[in-house]
């Protein structure tokens, strides 16, 4: 679909990777704060931003702790859709 790899939690996409960028699903309530980070942008590979998806540039997840935070956001989103 987007030329990368994605990971699912209970059948729901939570995180992925394409062209060195992380793709993260984020619950709506956390989008504004997350988009305030300089390395995070709306996911817009279709030409318009996709709801509850963000891209994270490679320099936004250079440590295991940073990557873990984004993975947890993605899992949080997936859990919100499976409950």
Question: Which helices and strands appear, and what pairs or packs with what?
Answer:
Layout: E1 5-9, E2 12-18, E3 21-25, H1 28-35, E4 40-42, E5 53-56, H2 64-82
Antiparallel strand pairs: 1-2, 2-3, 3-5, 4-5
CATH class: Alpha Beta
Radius of gyration in whole Å, from Cα? 12 Å
The CATH topology label is: Aspartate Aminotransferase, domain 1
Q: Please, how many domains?
A: 1
Name the CATH architecture: Alpha-Beta Complex
What portion of residues is helical? Answer: 25-40%
Shape: globular
Mean pLDDT: 92
SS-derived structural category: alpha+beta
Instruction: Work out the oligomeric state of the chains in this entry.
Output: single chain
Spatial arrangement of strands, main beta sheet: 1-2-3-5-4
Strand content: 25-35%
Largest sheet composition: 5 strands, antiparallel
Count of DSSP H/I helices: 2
Quick recap:
The protein has 83 residues and is an alpha+beta fold. Helices cover 33% and strands 29% of the residues.
Q: What would your notes on this structure say?
A:
- The chain is of the alpha+beta class.
- It has one domain (5-82): Alpha-Beta Complex (Aspartate Aminotransferase, domain 1), CATH 3.90.1150.
- The protein is built from two helices and five strands; from the N terminus they run βββαββα.
- It has helices at residues 28-35, 64-82; strands at 5-9, 12-18, 21-25, 40-42, 53-56.
- It has a five-stranded antiparallel beta sheet with strand order 1-2-3-5-4.
- A hairpin with a 2-residue loop joins strand 1 and strand 2 (12-18).
- The longest helix has 19 residues, at 64-82.
- It starts with a strand and ends with a helix.
């Amino acid at each position: 679909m987007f030329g990368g790899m994605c990971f699912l939690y209970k059948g729901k996409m939570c995180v992925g990777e394409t062209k060195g960028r992380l793709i993260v699903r984020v619950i709506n309530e956390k989008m504004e704060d997350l988009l305030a980070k300089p390395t995070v942008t709306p996911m817009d590979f279709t030409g318009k931003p996709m709801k509850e998806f963000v891209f994270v540039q490679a320099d936004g997840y250079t440590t295991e702790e940073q990557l873990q935070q984004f993975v947890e956001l993605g899992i949080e989103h997936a859990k919100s859709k499976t409950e």
